[in-house]
Amino acid sequence: MKYVLTALALLATALPAAAQNDDRPGRRGPDRRGGEPRFGRPVELAPDDVPARPAPPADIVAPRDDVPHGKLETIEYESKTVGTTRKMQVYTPPGYTPEKTYPVLYLLHGIGGDETEWTRFAQPNVMLDNLIADGKAVPMLVVMPNGRAQKNDRAEGDVFASAPAFAVFERDLLDDVIPAIESRYSVKTDRESRALAGLSMGGGQSLNFGLTHLDTFAWVGGFSSAPNTKAPAELVPNPAQTAEKLELLWLSCGAKDGLMRISRGMHQYLKEHDVPHVWHVDDHGHDAAHWRNTLYHFVQELFQPAKD
Description:
Layout: E1 71-79, E2 84-92, E3 104-108, H1 117-121, H2 124-133, E4 141-145, H3 163-184, E5 194-199, H4 201-210, E6 219-223, H5 232-235, H6 239-245, E7 248-254, H7 260-272, E8 278-282, H8 288-301
Parallel strand pairs: 3-4, 3-5, 5-6, 6-7, 7-8
Antiparallel strand pairs: 1-2, 2-4
């Protein structure tokens, strides 16, 4: 393993109060003891619950006229898994050309979002335009699919009722989304050129799918991963093999996130089993600022040459 970043994040504002979850392992629904959800309760920090990276500049998603711009588009694809036509957003970097091949980051949203969620608060297209122009990120595609694999994939009504569809998305991602991208765009198709990351529910998906499909993904990130995250021993039954195959594992959480224990549990397991990683805890909660800032650091680590 070249290097593995572990950043554990916190949960607070992205989901409605009715969708807030208990942070104890095995719990799946809201816990309203005393009439209040425990989602944003105070967090007791451990000595190593500290930032692994500095706070980014305030202008990381400010459009710049002095840099080339990539393209952000919404495309449709046929999903055999769901049995319908579905949508996803795709960012292609400045100067994209079929004469070259590019690595791909598959970026997943939370339980209350859809394929547009990341662009609404983090503007990955603007962020990457700036980072690529400054030589801080490798030109890459960013694919933002809808992780709710069901025919009505809109985030409406009781968003937790669609939780099972987030598990079904494993097959949609592997069997439909990735083949659609690789048939339409000039991308590299080896595992070292694919990354999978997400926020909250999408963070759990990324750990669940990425760590159990190391033949497909070599770069994995879970930002404020939600209670859908499987047990660490289930995801990493062979720590030595995981460490050997992964290029990057990033886990992040905000210090004010009531779901800290989920991400911290993964960190502690990796630490105990000598899986190299970086553990990143900033001063945010389960919120857009944490995810945007984490993405800023994460994309700069992706697809970079091995460190000696």
